Protein 1
Amino acid sequence: MKKIAIYLFALIILSCNNSDDNTPDCSTVDCAVVGLFIKVIESNSGENFIENHAITTEDITVTSNENEAISFSVYGDSSTQYKHTIATSFFSSEDLIIDIENLESIRVSYDRIEPKTNQCCDFGDIENVEVTSNQNFEFDEDLNILTIFI
């Protein structure tokens, strides 16, 4: 019984975190991916080009203004508001050039905002989104969804 008490006491002492920097332990937190999400919509019908498979992953390239490839993914049949979007991490670059086969290049520029807290999953945000294209667009600041109308 005495050995069990000593073992429990040692376990409690060893599991205490005496950190003075007030940063949370994020090692067990699974954060959602943060990024810029792009929808490509036909302006007359409202049809999503990714949803109807008119645009596929093979039709898309995303590069920085230094012509470096930026990784991206296409969200397909998910049940979220990001369904049928091109997703990029906004940590990759502050300027993205999106080339979609048979369309003109779309340049997206933005400013990154530093995290406001030291909490888990606060990676910052983006603001001052500008699109250089002849296409009309809308930007949802809450969801970081850029909708481009073609």
Protein 2
Amino acid sequence: MSLADCDEPAAVLPFPVRSEALLASLVPTLRDLYVRGEDESDPFLMTMVHGLRPRLSIDRDAYVEVRQQPEAFLLKIAAAPDSKITFETPDFAMLVKFVLQYMAERHGEPRSDGGLS
């Protein structure tokens, strides 16, 4: 059966662009490595927002946003009350390195079983 044979109305659903899909794939990995039971109630921890500007809220102080023109990942970290660190790269692997380093500094080193040491 093809779509043309179907009597039901069809809708074209937007599929995440490659960058958004990569960012979304990072969420379960970070949750497995860093989210503990007491953290699960934090609405800012590992929350993915889809839309015109896809955003991964890592925690209350950091997020990653997908930039479209030019396509790049933008990591912003509140480092002090009056300071922010901004890192922009088109390289997803480099972004992951920075995010993992940030998570280790703020939330502790992950154990090999996914828990924190």
